[in-house]
């Protein structure tokens, strides 16, 4: 129970930090004195994710896992909020597990490894639960009354 409370606190702090960073990074840059002519460019949501020559092997692994996570969360939307929620959460959990496995493999801090190992255990069980729900939902939709 104590570990769960610690994990909850860490998750809340990380969430707050991510939210705060997102809010700060969305501030508009200062406007130039005169408009600058430019050609509209498509937004690259993953700019800066490329390898930098001096990146550590763990950094490269985290970047690759993060990229796979972003790609896997691009699910086919069904319009059913329950199904869409389960699909995107399964993808998100799989990405979190991939990141945690990198920590377990390459990390050296016992506490960080413990958090990663706990995350792997809990997310894997949650994925099983969500897949069972999806299977039951699929079975229920294929059987109709009067079959």
Give the overall silhouette.
globular
Largest sheet: none
Report the total helices.
4
The topology string of helices and strands comes to HHHH
Rounded to an integer in angstroms, the radius of gyration calculated over CA atoms is 20 Å
Overall pLDDT score: 76
Proportion in helices? 55-70%
Q: Distance N terminus to C terminus?
A: 47 Å
Strand tally is: 0
Low-pLDDT regions = none
Structure classification: mainly alpha
Strand content: under 5%
Main attributes?
single chain; 147 residues; mainly alpha; 0% strand; globular
Topology, element by element:
Blueprint: H1 2-25, H2 57-72, H3 81-106, H4 110-142
Structure description:
- With 147 residues, this protein is mainly alpha-helical.
- It has 4 helices and no strands.
- It has helices at 2-25, 57-72, 81-106, 110-142.
Quick gist of this model?
The chain has 147 residues and is mainly α. The chain contains four helices and no strands.
């Amino acid at each position: 129970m104590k570990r769960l409370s610690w994990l909850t606190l860490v998750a809340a702090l990380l969430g707050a930090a991510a939210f705060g960073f997102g809010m700060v990074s969305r501030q508009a840059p200062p406007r130039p004195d005169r408009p600058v002519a430019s050609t509209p460019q498509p937004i690259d949501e993953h700019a800066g994710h490329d390898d930098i020559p001096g990146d550590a092997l763990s950094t490269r692994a985290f970047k690759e896992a993060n990229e796979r996570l972003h790609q896997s969360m691009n699910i086919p939307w069904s319009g059913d909020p329950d199904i869409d929620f389960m699909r995107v959460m399964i993808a998100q959990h799989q990405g979190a597990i991939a990141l945690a496995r990198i920590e377990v493999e390459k990390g050296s801090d016992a506490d960080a490894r413990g958090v990663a190992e706990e995350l792997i255990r809990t997310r894997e069980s949650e994925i099983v639960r969500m897949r069972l729900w999806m299977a039951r939902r699929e079975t229920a939709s294929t059987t109709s009354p009067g079959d």
